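Hello,

I think I submitted the iron/sulfur cluster job twice by accident. Can you confirm which output corresponds to this input? Input:
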Amino acid sequence: MSILTPGGAGIRPQHENSSLETGFWNAAVPSMCVVPLQQHTGSRIDPLVRTGDFVREGMVIAESDRRLALPLHAPIPGRVRNIGRVQLFDGTYSAAMSIELDGEFDRLGKHLEPVAWADLSRDELLQRIRAAGVVCGPRSAAPAHLLLGPKRPRGDRVLVLDLAETEPYLTGGVEQAVAASDAVLTGLQIVAAILAAERVHIVIARGYARRLERLRRSAREIGYRVHRVARRYPGITEASLRSFVRRNHVDGNSDDDLFVISPNTAYAIYEAVVFDKPQIDQVIAVGGSAVRRPAHVRVRIGTAIADILAECGGLTAEPARIIAGGPLTGREVANINAPITKTTAAVVAMKREEIHVGGAQEPCIGCGACARACPVELDPQLLHRYILAGQTDDARTAGLPACIECGLCAHVCPSRIPLVDRFREVKRVHPLTGDGVV
Ligand code: SF4
Ligand code: SF4
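Support: Only one job matched these inputs. Its output is below.
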C-alpha cells in the first residue's frame, strides 16, 4: 500500500471510536417512522399517498417530475398516520409523513434475486440508482444519479473510495465495508462503470487496514490501488487527493476529475442496482460518553433519535450535548424525538467532561488558535469578522469558498464561537446548480 499524507494542519483524533463495539446489528423496526420529505438537495417532491393509506415496505411515497427531484420510499410497511410538518433534530421544520408499522415486510427476511448489473447500460444503471432514491452522503444530500450522470469533459476520471474518515465516531461506513466488503466493492465497480473511470483508488485510514484485509485483497485482484492514510482529522479532502495525485505523478495529474464516494453510498448503490432496493436504512454509529452501549446499528430512515439511543441501552447520565453526525461537523440535536435522515451518519450523546469546551460564547480574544488549526490555511477569525460586518464579498476574497467545513476552528476556539456554523450559512452553495451566496 502507498501512504497518502495530507498536508496542512489538523488534529489527531482521540480514541473515542475505540469505545464503540465493532460490527453492527439490525435495530428493532420502529413502531412509527416519521419521514421528512426533503432529504435530498434538489427539487421539492410531493406525497403520492394520503392519510389512512396503507404503504408497503420500500414503496414510493413521494415523488415529482421536477428535474432535480428524487423519489422517497416507505422505510416500513404500515398505515400513513399523518402528512404535515415535523420538527427536525436541528430545530427547523420540514414537510413529513408519519407511518405506523403494520402489515408484512416485502424485503426483510426475503430472498431477492440479484440482477446481472454488468449487462445493464449506463442509463439503466443511473435509472436504478435514481429509482432507489440514493443520495451521496454523509456530507452531501445530492442525488447520486445527478452527480454521476453528466459526462465529464476534462482530464482522466479517477474514482476514490473514502475509507479514511477520521472524525471521531463516524465509523458506520467502515463497519459496513468490513461486514460487506464484496457488496461495497461491487458498488464501487458500478460507479466506475458509470463514470468510465480510468483509475480507482481506495484510501484507508491507518488503524482500519487490518480489519479491511479482505476488501484490500479483492480490490487489488480487480486492479484497484489501495493507499493507507495517516490517522489525522480532517483526513482526506479533495484538495489533499489532488495534491497526492500531482505529487506522485504515478498515474495522473492535477486536471484529473476526482469523484469521491463513501462506503455507505457504495453499498446503497449496490443494493439499488443489484437488488432494486431503495435507500430505506443505513448503518450508523451511536456513541459518546453518555451512551450505555456505544455501538453501530442498521436503522430505518425515519427512526427517532430517542429510539436509536434506547436501542443502545439508553443513557447513563443526562448528556450535555447530543449531536447528529460527528462531534466536529454534526448538528446539535434540539429535538430528541426527531427522525434520522439519509445523511445521518452518527448519533453522539456526550457528558460535559467529553466536550472540549462548554459554556456561553464570548468575544474573540485574537489568540490565533483557529488559524493554526485550519487545514486549508484560512484565517477563520478574519472570515468571521467580515461575516459579522455583512462583508461577504470580503470573506469570499479572503478564501471562504476554500473552507471545507471541517469544524476544527470552532473546536479549538476558547471563546466558543460557532465559526463553522456561520461559514456554512454564508457559503451554502447548491451542489448541483452552483446557486448560493458565495
Ligand atoms: S471549518 Fe473551514 S475555516 Fe474552520 S478550520 Fe475547517 S476549513 Fe478552516
Ligand atoms: S480561536 Fe476563537 S478566540 Fe482565538 S482567534 Fe480564533 S475566533 Fe478568536
